[in-house]
Amino acid sequence: MKHGIYYSYWEHEWSAKFGPYVEKVAKLGFDIIEVAAHHINEYSEADLAAIKQSAKDNGIILTAGIGPSKTKNLSSPDADVRKAGKAFFEQTLTNVAKLDIKTIGGALHSYWPVDYSKPVDKEGDRARGVEGIHGIADFANDLGINLCIEVLNRFENHVLNTAAEGVAFVTEVGKPNVKVMLDTFHMNIEEDSFGEAIRTAGPLLGHFHTGESNRRVPGVGRMPWHEIGLALREINYTGAVVMEPFVKTGGTIGSDIRVWRDLTNGADEAKMDEDARNALAFSRFVLGG
Ligand SMILES: O=C(CO)[C@@H](O)[C@H](O)[C@H](O)CO
Ligand SMILES: [Mn+2]
User: Fold this and answer.
1) What pLDDT is recorded for position 90?
2) Do 112 and 70 meet the contact criterion of CB atoms below 8 Å apart?
3) pLDDT of residue 83
4) Is the CB of 149 within 6 Å of ligand 1?
5) Ligand 1 atom nearest to 112, measured from its CA
6) β-bridge partners, 6
7) What is the C-alpha to C-alpha distance for residues 91 and 93, in angstroms, rounded to an integer?
8) For residue 209, which of 43, 63, 183, 267 is within the disulfide window of CB 3.0 to 4.6 Å?
9) pLDDT for position 173
10) Residue 121, C-beta contacts closer than 8 angstroms, at least 6 positions apart
11) Residue 237 pLDDT class (50, 70, 90 cuts)
């Protein structure tokens, strides 16, 4: 098991440059940095090459996260949007591969966060989502990338809210590089049992996000970490465990994640780093790796 952190912990915008964080997370002792793929198509070849080299020099693996915008939604009822989504993913995956990234996770099958001022067509969106993911899976596979479909809570997405729904979706897609992704923050809202949800995903679990129920770093709240760690060991999970803390107000990240109060307790960057380091030690101990 390898442990990582989403660099957006320190940032306010998904567009924030992630290059400088490679060395920072290495110094904190992480194995992985997760980067936002939303704006990767704006990086130059030279930028990507430099980040790849920096990852190599620092012994860091990169993974990618993405919440596709409404205009790139693979499950849209509008065929032009689905087409734009496919083109966007092909370009994004091509650039992601330049960083040797083997895992991209998020609401790849839909868009995020969902606009609930419009009527919801869960069945239709799900069917188009299966088709959309099926349509980009081989492209990703040729680049050596796994597509990890994130199960989200009801307030952020309607298509997949439970591990069982994630498994049914991924099974229907039926491609070896399309996997289920779970996140303890979302599970805490939707699942009857953390252990059971992880066992339900079993060998299909491709990526795992962690955070407390208020999205603070693992180890400071009331998440049942021992139960989660036992279940991950039971299914012999050897993939990435990426903590995804969101604690700062402001910017697009603050508003997309609905952070309306300072969850850092006024921490400066040094204290934020220390919190991350402590959360990593806690995660290695309780979850393994
Ligand atoms: O859990 C979430 C959102 O609540 C994320 O994984 C998100 O989809 C991604 O971070 C967007 O970049
Ligand atoms: Mn997540």
Assistant:
1) 98
2) no
3) 98
4) no
5) 8
6) 34
7) 6
8) 183
9) 99
10) 77
11) very high
* Separation of alpha carbons 163 and 202, rounded Å: 10
Six-digit token string for 33: 């940095």
Nearest to 259 by CA among 271, 245, 273, 278: 245
Going from the N-terminus, what domains does the chain have, and what CATH number goes with each?
2-287 (3.20.20.150)
* CA 204/CA 164 separation, integer angstroms: 11
User: Counting atoms of ligand 1 from 1, which one is nearest the CA of 257?
Assistant: 4
Q: What is the pLDDT of residues 261-281, one digit of tens each?
A: 999 999 999 999 999 999 999
Residue closest to 159 by CA, chosen among 210, 104, 205, 114 = 114
Any idea of the CA torsion for 73, 77, 83, 85, to the nearest 10 degrees?
0
User: CA–CA separation, 10 vs 177, rounded Å?
Assistant: 30
**Is the CB of residue 156 below 6 angstroms from any atom belonging to ligand 1?**
yes
Site to probe by mutation for ligand 1, drawn from 11, 184, 209, 252 as the one with most ligand atoms within 8 Å of Cβ, is 209
- Regarding the beta carbon of 36 and ligand 1, being less than 6 Å apart is answered yes
